TrEMBL record:
UniProt-listed InterPro entries: Cof, HAD-like_sf, HAD-SF_hydro_IIB, HAD_sf
Protein name: Cof subfamily protein (Haloacid dehalogenase superfamily)
A GO MF label: phosphatase activity
Pfam families: Hydrolase_3
PROSITE patterns in UniProt: COF_1 (PS01228), NIRD (PS51300)
NCBIfam families: Cof-subfamily (TIGR00099), HAD-SF-IIB (TIGR01484)
Organism (species): Nonomuraea rubra
Entry-linked SUPFAM superfamilies: HAD-like
GO CC annotations on file: cytosol
Amino acid sequence: MSTGTFPRIVATDLDGTLLSSAGTVTARTRQALQAARAAGAEIVFVTARAPRGVVEIARQAGVTGTAICSNGALVYDVATDEITASSPLAPETARKVIEALTQALPGVGLAVETGRNVLAEAAYTRRVEHDLASYLEVQSVFDGGRPIVKLLALSPAHTADEMYAAVAEAIGDLAEVTYSGVEGLLEISAAGVTKAVTLDRLCAERGVAAGDVVAFGDMPNDLAVLLYAGAGYAMGNAHPRVLSAAGHRTLTNDEDGVAVVLENLLAGR
């Protein structure tokens, strides 16, 4: 980004990044986002969350417009509550991925994010308290033929880093494997589907160059976005892989790290 110019897109992760550890948007962060919008920037949430997990955050932040959800598999219009683009994992590919998962991680629990619900097999015991109404218990994640927006793999006996190391080579280029902060949980999308790829498509539609994007994130699923953007900021609380690879660093999410950067950019215009 050129000195004295303000980014055209502010692309930010939510959990561990924009949100405090209490899961809220602070007054300082909301004010910084509103000032960025007034300066001409579009605020784009780029998150592992499904659309239903974005609505309340958008309200707190005073943000409307487009959100990139489910690690890039969905594009969501916040104002109209419409999913405008979807890139699901093909069922036949999902079966191959599951075979690799169960061989590498015996006893792994499986669930599927459909975009509107979570289909959870018995061994998938994780539940997000504010999202309980969206869980459907199924014998198999393939029940009902619903879209596999994101395949979720849970192994409470392992860290996400351990799981990734165990399955990444076996899955190879069948699908995108990543994780976003929940221990023992991998998130798997269709091959070529990442936050960065979907953000690039959105930028192209708007005629925005990557150099005119500032991005924020904290976990491995954010890294491609941070490397794509003209200025990519790792949060002070970020995963070691992100801290070592990102070009810039800010304060932690609980220190309003996103707001601090935006305030400084606004002051330097």
